[in-house]
Amino acid sequence: MADRNKTILLVNDNPRWLRVLREMLTSMGFTVIPAHDGMEAFRLARGYLPDVVVSDIWMDVLNGFELCKCIRATEITSKIPVILFSNLDMSKERLEQAKAAGADACLPGSPDLSALLRKIRELSP
Length: 125
Fold this sequence. Notes:
By secondary structure, this protein is of the alpha/beta class. The chain has five helices and five strands. It has helices at residues 15-27, 38-48, 64-73, 92-101, 113-123, and strands at residues 7-11, 31-35, 52-56, 82-86, 105-108. The chain has a five-stranded parallel sheet, sandwiched between helices.
């Protein structure tokens, strides 16, 4: 399976969602590195250089937009694809904010596994 060698940095400050998404992605053959906030995620991104970052937007410590900007501003991580998602309504303004932050994709709602897998595979062939 092509996904077996892909590493995903998964970021969510909700422990339940982090666990559920981690289990789903791991069962699909991905290696998943969990992070509980954007600051931890940025540190892990620099250390592990994952194939893709999948991050919630709304977190207390360095939100998803800020995390994306940090990733883009750092040479070693600047090319890592970033997928943002939010359980809250994704207005046009939020989508524009994600694009301005440098996100490669922004998924509305709790990530639908099939849509998330499509984006991961599209962004990290």
